[in-house]
């Protein structure tokens, strides 16, 4: 790789060799992709979404292709926080990049207990997924109302000694208010956006495709909206932002950085092209050279 281009970035005091992070839920713990290319090339990996206890995930169809994207209703299938600490961390550590543990929960107690355990483990950062439904509030996600999110982040902040990233849902009532609330509650960084709530119908069966009716939309289709949300949030918060949403190319990466993102996560593209991480990184070097960018940090937030 040409070292005339500096791709190193810093997020909440953590050094990344480049701004590419494999997004949670699309990369497992990295082992399968590492059979195809050296995933240590990436700046970081965000783990499969963890919950305090193991989860089997949703029944029925889990993935559905859409125009320029995909929908998923996987349901946070994962081995649980304890199993991740015992086995998953060791698997991820040898890749040599930033290890981010992504964690969700369905109650305040789950978040606090899980965050406490992960804070004492060998991870570099904790990414808090607040898009999970709150079982004590009729299933409304923690990340919909800013005051609810602020409470969760504040409680997790009390027990989390690691740099804390809060992953925001685009389904929030107001994404900027949500970002400001999480920042005030102690988030060291923000990542956005998670998937958009969407729906598909099987006209032949005359019923929704997914057992849960609604599912999460991701992929290239959401990029312009995700980019707008990242730009809006970056203009208002002081903490670093990690951009997510339909990033498929090196050009997409530069767009998010120019919008203000300190780093980006690539997700759905990994399903389209399992070598995407390596391909985008290689293209990013050449694109920066072509555009006369010697340090990717120079263009952050210029738009």
Describe this structure in words.
The chain is of the alpha/beta class and 303 residues long. The protein has a single domain, classed as Alpha-Beta Barrel (TIM Barrel), CATH 3.20.20. Helix content is 31%, strand content 20%. The chain contains 9 helices and 16 strands. The strands form 4 sheets. The chain has an 8-stranded parallel β-barrel with strand order 3-4-7-8-9-10-15-16, surrounded by 6 helices. Strands 5-6-14-11 form a 4-stranded antiparallel β-sheet, with no helix packed on it. The protein has a two-stranded antiparallel sheet with strand order 1-2. Helix 3 runs parallel beside helix 4 (146-159). The protein is globular. It starts with 8 loop residues before the first strand and ends in a 13-residue tail after the last helix. The model has no long low-confidence stretch (mean pLDDT 96).
Keywords:
alpha/beta, 9 helices, 303 residues, 8-stranded parallel β-barrel, 4-stranded antiparallel β-sheet, TIM Barrel, single chain, 31% helix
Within the largest sheet, what's the order of strands?
Answer: 3-4-7-8-9-10-15-16
- Rg over CA atoms, rounded to whole Å, is 18 Å
**Briefly, what CATH class?**
Alpha Beta
Low-pLDDT parts are none
Q: Oligomerization state of this entry?
A: single chain
The SSE string, one letter per element, is: EEEHEEEHEHEHEHEEEEEHEHEHH
């Amino acid at each position: 790789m040409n070292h005339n281009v500096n791709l190193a970035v810093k997020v909440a005091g953590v050094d990344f060799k480049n701004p590419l992070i494999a997004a949670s839920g699309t990369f497992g713990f990295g082992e399968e992709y590492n059979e195809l290319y050296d995933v240590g090339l990436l700046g970081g990996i965000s783990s499969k979404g963890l919950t305090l206890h193991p989860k089997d995930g949703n029944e029925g169809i889990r993935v559905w292709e859409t125009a320029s994207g995909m929908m998923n209703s996987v349901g946070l299938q994962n081995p649980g926080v304890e199993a991740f600490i015992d086995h998953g961390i060791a698997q991820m550590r040898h890749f040599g990049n930033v290890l981010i543990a992504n964690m969700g929960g369905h109650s305040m107690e789950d978040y606090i207990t899980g965050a406490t355990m992960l804070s004492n483990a060998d991870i570099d950062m904790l990414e808090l997924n607040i898009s999970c439904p709150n079982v004590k509030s009729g299933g409304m996600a923690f990340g919909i109302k800013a005051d609810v999110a602020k409470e969760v982040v504040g409680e997790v902040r009390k027990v989390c000694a690691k740099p804390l990233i809060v992953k925001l849902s685009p389904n929030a009532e107001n994404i900027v208010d949500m970002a400001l609330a999480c920042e005030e509650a102690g988030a060291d960084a923000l990542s956005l956006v998670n998937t958009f709530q969407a729906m598909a119908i099987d006209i032949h069966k005359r019923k929704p495709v997914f057992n849960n009716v609604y599912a999460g939309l991701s992929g290239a289709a959401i990029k312009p909206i995700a980019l707008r949300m990242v730009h809006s949030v970056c203009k208002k918060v002081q903490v670093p932002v990690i951009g997510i949403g339909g990033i498929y190319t090196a050009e997409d990466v530069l767009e998010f950085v120019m919008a203000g993102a300190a780093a980006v996560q690539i997700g759905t593209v990994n399903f389209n092209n399992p070598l995407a991480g390596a391909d985008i990184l290689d293209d990013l070097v050449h694109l920066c050279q072509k555009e006369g960018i010697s340090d990717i940090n120079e263009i952050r937030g210029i738009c």
